[in-house]
Write a structure and sequence with these properties.
It is found in: Nucleus. The chain is of the alpha+beta class. The protein has 16 helices and 28 strands.
Length: about 750
């Protein structure tokens, strides 16, 4: 649980001399006096100080007047600053403190209500909310606030989710949760397979396509019977339709009764999008294990995830498909459907910002389940769990080939994400927020968790058991849905490569654990990381990544040789620092993690040894690869394909300056607490036209200059500045710089 909260101010009383608030520290930026109101009630004069030196960006209050419109919803467990740091990291705009002592009773009451009830005082400025957060103060002289900005409406929804320990999950529909077909799409797929068979001479492939056609024809006949008679004959038994009422959405909607036939034994449903038009009938196959995933999301009477849908399908179709998946409205209530289901135009990118256009959630608190990664905006792809496309006609047994079905793997991943997110929130963010005072600065704010940090999974390529060509599209996607329901002709599309995935382990927050296995695995399109094996090396490496605010990735390949060995490489902030080879992927991963830790340790010791006066034997060796961490690994008997180079040997020619600069900056970030505050600043260039242009750069950490560099080449100037900055960090005794440096205790030698 979080640390005890510091005590608020005592009763109103005069400070030294009985007038004026706490004096700002020497060298602090000058404050500006502003009048503060709650509605029309005058609260007093406030002294407002910019958060950054020099008052960059100015003050956020219009007309230099602070007018509180309302108080935020109370929070049960989360102080406002922790919520704001999660949804709007490092958004502190300024500080406020009472100018009058003693403060007016109305201001004192506002401060105590905000402090004790975990509320913030909200100032609305256009589409932005300015949250005044009551802060404890070491001086105990005046009511003090931090002012943080957030998008309007986002704070209120986030309070509820964080109090309930709830995240958001976004589902794709077609070939992720369902496969749907009309009569026309069935006919076109049967025709396409028949044409393939006509030109095929491999008997194995012909047999595979023949079996696939048979499955299509069987379901097509059921759909035709449903269209003609509103019944189907399933295993000799006639099943009639049930009239299912479509619950009206918010905004009003006429009562609709749809004819539906549910066939649990086939995991299939027949429905009619427009009950008055029989040609809009659809045969829908539900992905196995959907019930297990759905039950987890709302188990024990509480929501673990708020559910959203993002699809490229037509809206009426999407609404009906989701109704079939969630008939009782337990995941999305009928009143929320209009805002929770997002239909994206075919060819456009999906984005979480568009999904949460109502500001019901911040993208950092959301994960996605989809069978395709490249349809998502680049900035959201690290939050996507990619599942293999659902292909029940081409490979009807694929879902059961693994020990754990695909959607159970997705459930396990969701368990792991939720557990990791709130563990970081409780043990790091909350604890450190409770230790902050008004006098602290922006750099003292802790790292805020992101769902993408915990979405660690192993993805696989689908490897069919026969020699068939790539399967044709089995269901309707995107714009095709509207064409189908309107009777337009089908235009064949070549299917994208199929992917199958499974997860090795993902503990539920209730203490349950799940395990699955699979074969034919490979790296996912975005270079996704492998599932964490039960190894101390992998765990320690992930912890180091979180401490350094750096991304740790495991990328895997399978050799083309007869030995079928696996290779795993470790990327730390996009730099390769370890490679492992083994007969299994887990063995290669553990080996890669161990080598990465040793390379990190060696690199660190090579820098601290000169400072401590200890000669480093390795310093006389060849520098190895250009990133300073990894020596080239060769394997004569295994053909291994690496996805990215590890960096070239550091040379003086211009082509390698960028590599060397990247390496130096990585080392600088390892020393610093907050690498986002290490910046290059472009100094004034030589303006004399008679002279050759010269570039000047300086490296700064929280306003402190660490190094300068100049040269006729822009990259060389940056490199010189970075090298001088690194020397400064390794040798400095300046307390103003050292307070921003990272203690390196976490790089502990790993015992053999």
């Amino acid at each position: 649980m979080a640390a005890p909260r510091p005590p608020p101010l005592g009763p109103p009383g005069g400070g030294p001399g009985g007038s004026g608030g706490a004096a700002p520290a020497a060298g602090a930026p000058a404050g500006v006096s502003m009048r503060m109101f709650h509605g029309e009630v005058f609260l007093g004069e406030m002294e407002v100080f910019p958060m950054k030196q020099g008052g960059e960006g100015g003050f956020p209050f219009p007309s230099n007047e602070i007018r509180v419109s309302h108080l935020s919803p109370p929070s049960e467990r989360c102080p406002p600053l922790a919520i704001l740091q999660t949804i709007a990291p490092f958004s502190v705009r300024c500080k406020l403190q009472s100018k009058l002592m003693p403060p007016l009773p109305s201001l004192h009451r506002l401060y105590h209500v905000c402090f004790n009830e975990f509320k913030s005082a909200v100032v609305v400025v256009g589409d932005e909310e300015l949250h005044l957060v009551a802060m404890p103060t070491k001086s105990e002289k005046a009511p003090c606030f931090w002012c943080c900005s957030a998008r309007s409406g986002l704070y209120a929804s986030s309070v509820r989710m964080l109090n309930l320990r709830c995240l958001a999950i976004v589902f794709d529909l077609d070939e992720t949760l369902i496969v749907a077909n009309t009569m026309k799409s069935f006919e076109d797929r049967i025709e396409m397979l028949s044409r393939r068979m006509d030109v095929e001479d491999d008997p194995v492939r012909i047999a595979g396509m023949s079996a696939e056609i048979k499955r299509y024809i069987e379901d097509k006949e059921l759909l035709k019977e449903f269209i003609d008679t509103d019944t189907v004959t399933d295993n000799g038994k006639i099943v009639g339709t049930q009239k299912e009422e479509v619950q009206p959405m918010s905004g009003g909607q006429e009562r609709v009764l749809r004819p539906v036939i549910r066939l649990p034994g086939r995991n299939a449903i027949l429905t009619r999008i427009n009950p008055e038009i029989r040609d809009t009938s659809v045969f829908v196959k539900l992905r196995p294990a959907w019930e297990e995933l759905r039950s987890y999301l709302t188990a024990k009477g509480r929501k673990r995830f708020e559910v959203y849908v993002c699809t490229m399908a037509e809206r009426d179709y999407a609404l009906e498909m989701w109704r079939l998946l969630d008939p009782e409205g337990n995941l999305i209530s009928p009143q929320q459907l209009s805002e929770r289901i997002t239909c994206v135009k075919s060819g456009s990118k999906k984005s979480l910002q568009n999904v949460f256009r109502d500001r019901g959630c911040h993208p950092k608190m959301a994960m996605v389940i989809d069978d395709r990664l490249n349809v998502w905006d680049d900035k959201d792809q690290h939050r996507v769990h990619v599942v293999p496309a659902y292909i029940p006609y081409y490979a009807p047994q694929a879902e059961m080939a693994n020990a754990v079905p695909v959607l159970c793997v997705a459930r396990n991943v969701a368990c792991n994400v939720r557990g990791g997110f709130f563990r970081e929130f409780d043990e790091n963010l909350l604890r450190k927020v409770f230790e902050l005072f008004y006098e602290n600065g922006l750099l003292d704010l802790p790292y805020a968790p992101d769902v993408g940090d915990y979405l660690v999974c192993e993805d696989t390529n689908f490897v069919p058991s026969n020699k068939d060509q790539a399967p044709i599209p089995e269901g309707m996607r995107g714009a095709e849905v509207e064409k189908r329901l309107n009777g337009q002709l089908y235009r064949g599309e070549q299917r994208e490569g199929q992917q199958m995935s499974s997860s090795t382990r993902s503990p539920d927050d209730e203490g349950m654990s799940f395990r699955s296995t699979g074969a034919g695995r490979n790296v996912q399109p975005n270079g996704g990381a492998l599932a964490i094996a039960p190894s101390v090396f992998v765990t320690v490496l992930q912890d180091i990544g979180r401490l350094c605010d750096s991304k740790v990735e495991f990328r895997s390949t399978v050799s083309n040789g007869k030995s079928m060995q696996f290779s795993v490489e470790v990327l730390f902030s996009n730099e390769k620092i370890g490679v492992g080879i083994g007969k299994t992927r887990d063995e290669a991963q553990v080996q890669a993690a161990e080598k990465a830790l040793r390379n990190l340790e060696s690199s660190y010791l090579s820098f601290v040894a000169p400072i401590a006066g200890v000669p480093n034997e390795d310093s006389r060796k060849s520098p190895g690869s250009g990133n300073g961490f990894l020596e080239d690994v060769t394997c004569s008997d295994v053909d291994i394909s690496m996805h990215e180079p590890s960096g070239s040997t550091l040379k003086q020619d211009h082509s390698n300056n960028l590599d060397k600069l990247s390496s130096v900056m990585s080392l600088i970030r390892e020393h610093c607490l907050e690498d986002q505050h290490v910046v290059f600043r472009d100094q004034v260039q030589n303006s004399n036209p008679a002279r050759i242009e010269e570039y000047h750069f300086q490296v700064e950490l929280a306003g402190q200059i660490l190094g300068r560099g100049s040269g006729l080449d822009r990259d060389i100037a940056k490199l010189l500045a970075a090298e001088e900055a690194l020397k400064t960090l390794k040798s400095t005794s300046d307390p103003q710089i050292k307070k921003y440096l990272r203690p390196m205790q976490w790089l502990i030698p790993i015992p053999l």
